[in-house]
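User: Before I run my own analysis I want an independent prediction to cross-check against. Here's the chain; please return only the structure tokens and, at the end, one sentence I can use as a sanity check.
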Amino acid sequence: MALDAIDQAGLELALDEARKGAAEGGIPIGSALLYRLDPGGSALEHGQEIGLGGLEYVFLGKGHNRRIQKSSPTLHGEMDALENAGRLKADVYRRSTIVRDILISRCQGLLSSFIKLTCVSTSIRL
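Assistant: Structure tokens:
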């Protein structure tokens, strides 16, 4: 299955985060949160705009698994990305995509019950 532009951009960010986690001695799992802007709409209060083939996205946050580094039972890559994005309006989450570089995550159920997010996963390893 081919990835669309937002998924590919998010995956590249997630893989960069996974590499950071590995370099820190942690579990190499990364994640990125991206938001698609309305056509002709303005950017959110924060975030880095990414232009992809005429579509505009804002990169809201990225993170990696820090469970080992921080001795945390909950600091998975997805949670780190959401934390780094800061508090956002519910509509922003509904229109966002969270991308991670692993097929299965214990956060998947929590994310789907927390808010509507699209998860893209890959089995590409570092």
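Sanity check: Residues 5-120 form a domain with the Cytidine Deaminase; domain 2 fold (CATH 3.40.140.10).
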